[in-house]
Design goal:
The protein is an alpha+beta fold and 632 residues long. Helix content is 31%, strand content 22%. Strands 7-6-5-8-3-2-9-10 form an eight-stranded mixed β-sheet. β9 (186-191) and β10 (194-199) form a beta hairpin. The longest helix has 19 residues, at 468-486. The N and C termini lie far apart (73 Å). Bound molecules: adenosine-5'-triphosphate (ATP) and magnesium ion.
Length: 632
């Protein structure tokens, strides 16, 4: 009795069917998933000409029986699903019985397979969907499928294929990421005889990341470990559901300008999911500028009843039964881990791919802010790694003259790089620990202030430069959050209520978030048509800033946070208050105030970035200093 059956129309019609073969990478995805479903331990992918001439996948999985091998090319023939109720708990990657017939209809396909139950194997040749031959062959167990001349019979589709390099990079990314999802299996990728990936079985995902990406990327990443949470469903006879997430996310300093470095797997399936993408962004909220994205490799596991995979024709989207619960679980898991590792940006001598902005862009940025006039401390020569970048533009200077430092600096920070963990072999100051977190910020000794804007401090691990406004912003932000959470917000009563005129949109937002404003210390009430009276405000906000803060909060509520959670709204409010209330640059600070600032900063949960994601401090490590002075 074969394993594959043709689904009844009733079941087939309930499957989100559609185009599966869009490009070579989609063929690779389907074939890879079939090999994984077949329980393979080793998968070898060979490509020629970006997959257009040849895609060949060979595995050591369960193989196919002779009759099944023929049946596999019928539409809706699958071994993975039998009746409608199976659709509610799909545990395999495939379930539609569509991939092989679709691929076979647009290529010349050769299948060679043998199941352990049979003495001989089967070889089937198909071109453009027509079976050309089916014969017995001698071969070992497992399956090999070669797909040649993709779209040879659909010239219109062939025209739309991108360059060989583009198709190849899609395929390479796919195989690489599936290999990350299965560290215990062997994955090989060959392109025209050249080996692009050879990952042998390893124990942990961390080792696999090292195998495929190398140590450099690993240093930029935070390992989420295994994080679990149980969902208790308040319905009779519903057992608790266990969710688990593992994977890696980049430190907030690694900022990409698109989502191409985000890979999300749900129950072993690579998907694009807006809910989970949003959860990821929410985890970085206030740690990274809004238009930037991290690198992420997430593996979410849950009971298959909790996730519907039958929602998209190419199986690239899913729908969770308890959407917002899953969202918050993922966001919290990532955020907690981000909070635990609090690395400081530093000047590092090795440029890394993670660097956000090359020096040339940085200098351009400064130039655009009408900056001129050198200050020796900040001249590029001071920072060795800048020397590795393109030569600095001579006009890239700061102007600390009459106008002081431009106040409204754009969000992107200068070319910061992650600190490279360092060993100190043979180095005279070997005993000096270079701390890779900001834990030691509390031990910093302020040396003075630069241009009334930056605190210069000495630490056991080198020289630190702290942006006083951004540092204070972080301190206030966390204070406000803590007060919101405890329900004890420090407020100041206004002697005279302040009357604020709102636009119609602002009025709508106001009505929606009035309670939240109140919980954050703004005592307001409607006062006639489109007008509100403010009677009290959070203590840190100066009266001169009050109107701007409230309007800014209404704007945040309107723009970004409409659909998101209460906690995100609170964070938005706290960020606005902190930003307006923080001491400005171009403000002199005496020694006592600087000491207070550093101590308060050290006590924050996340001293490395302001709520908008700008860096708080830069560190010039002892080792870099010694190197710059040619002492090592
Ligand atoms: N590499 C393989 N090893 C063993 N059996 C395979 C392999 N590839 C395909 N099969 C068999 O062929 C059947 C049809 O494969 P096909 O990919 O068309 O459908 P599916 O995987 O069941 O569903 P989907 O269309 O969602 O991928 C599978 O159900 C499986 O039984
Ligand atoms: Mg399949």
């Amino acid at each position: 009795m074969g394993r594959i059956r043709v689904l009844s129309d009733n079941v087939a019609n309930k499957i989100a069917a559609g185009e599966v073969v869009e490009r070579p990478a989609s063929v690779v995805k389907e074939l890879l998933e079939n090999s994984l479903d077949a329980g393979s331990q080793s998968i070898r992918v060979e490509i020629e000409n970006g997959g257009r001439r040849l895609i060949r996948i060979a595995d050591d999985g369960c193989g196919m029986l002779r009759d099944d091998a023929l049946l596999a090319f019928e539409r809706h023939a699958t071994s993975k699903l039998h009746d409608v109720k199976d659709l509610l708990s799909i545990a395999t990657l495939g379930f539609r019985g569509e991939a092989l017939p679709s691929i076979a209809s647009v290529s010349r396909l050769l299948l060679e397979t043998r199941a352990p139950e049979e003495q001989t194997g089967t070889r089937i040749e198909i071109a453009g969907g027509k079976i050309l031959s089916c014969e017995e062959i001698a071969r070992g167990g497992g399956t090999a499928i070669s797909v040649r001349d993709l779209f040879f019979n659909v010239p219109a589709r062939k025209k739309f294929l991108r360059s060989e390099q583009t198709e190849l990079s899609h395929i390479a990314s796919l195989v690489t990421h599936y290999s990350l999802a299965h560290p215990d299996k062997t994955f090989e990728l060959w392109n025209g005889g050249a080996n692009l990936l050879h990952a042998t079985p390893v124990e942990t995902m961390r080792e696999r990341v090292f195998q495929v990406f190398g140590s450099q990327l690993l240093e930029d990443l935070i390992d989420l470990g295994l994080r679990e949470r149980v969902l208790h469903i308040e319905e009779p006879d519903e057992p608790p559901r266990r969710f688990a997430i593992r994977g890696f996310v980049s430190r907030p300093q690694v900022q990409k300008n698109n989502r191409n470095s985000i890979f999300i797997f749900v129950n072993g399936r690579l998907i694009r999911d807006r809910l989970l993408l949003h959860a990821l962004s929410a985890a970085y909220h206030n740690l990274m500028p809004a238009a930037c994205f991290p690198f992420a490799l997430l593996f979410l596991e849950c009971d298959c009843e909790e996730v519907d995979v039958n929602v998209h024709p190419s199986k690239t989207e899913v729908r969770f039964r308890h959407q917002s619960w899953v969202h918050d679980f993922v966001r919290d898991a990532i955020r907690e881990q981000l909070m635990q590792s609090r690395p400081a940006p530093s000047f590092s001598p090795n440029p890394q791919p993670a660097a956000q902005m090359p020096y040339s862009d940085f200098s351009q940025m400064m130039e655009n802010q009408n900056a001129a006039a050198p200050t020796p401390e900040f001249a590029p020569e001071f920072v060795p790694e800048f020397a590795m970048a393109p030569p600095p533009a001579p006009a890239a200077r700061f102007d600390f003259g009459d106008g002081g430092i431009p106040v409204n600096q754009p969000a992107p920070p200068p070319a910061l790089k992650l600190r490279v963990p360092d060993t100190h072999g043979g180095f005279p100051l070997e005993s000096i620990p270079i701390d890779h977190s900001m834990a030691r910020i509390g031990e910093l000794r302020p040396l003075g202030q630069l241009h009334n804007s930056f605190i210069i401090a000495a630490g056991t691990d080198g020289l630190w430069i702290i942006d006083q406004h951004v540092a204070h912003e972080r301190i206030l932000f966390e204070q406000v959050l803590a007060q919101q959470a405890s329900g004890h917000v420090e407020v100041q009563q206004l002697l005279m209520p302040m009357i604020l005129q709102l636009t119609a949109d602002q009025q709508i937002e106001y009505a929606r978030i009035a309670d939240e404003l109140h919980a954050s210390g703004f005592d307001t009430e409607p006062f006639g048509n489109r007008t509100i009276a403010v009677k009290a405000a959070p203590a840190p906000v100066g009266l001169g800033d009050l109107e701007r803060v409230i309007l800014e909060i209404l704007e945040i509520a309107e723009n970004e946070l409409r659909s998101v959670s209460l906690s995100d709204l609170r964070r938005g409010i706290a960020a606005s208050i902190a930003c307006r209330a923080a001491i400005k640059i171009n403000t002199p600070l005496d020694h006592r105030k600087m000491e207070w600032m550093l101590r308060a900063l050290a006590a924050t949960e996340y001293p490395m970035a302001c709520p908008h994601g700008r860096p708080v401090a830069l560190q010039y490590g002892t080792r870099e200093l010694l190197r710059a002075f040619h002492r090592i």
